[in-house]
Amino acid sequence: MSLDELRKALKALGITKGYSLNDVKSLYRNRVKEANDKEIKELSQAYKIILNFIENYPFEFSEEEFFKAFPEERLKRRIWHDPLWEKK
User: In total, how many domains does the chain have?
Assistant: First the structure.
C-alpha cells in the first residue's frame, strides 16, 4: 500500500482527520446503502485499504498518547492530584 492509495481511499469514503474505527465502519455502511454497483466496488476497495492501514498502524501505548486520545483524563488527573483538592 502506498500513501497515494491511502489518500485516494480516504477521499473515496470522505474521511478527514479524527475518525475512529467505528466511525469509518458506520460511514462505509451509510455510503454503500446509497451507492450503485460500480460505486460499491470502489467503496469496498477503499474500505479494505483503510482497514488494512488501521490494523497495521503502530500505536505507542504511552501516557502521552493516552492523554492525546482522552484529554479529559489529563484534567481529572491534575485536579485529583492537586494538593488543594486532595481529601485529607
Answer: 2
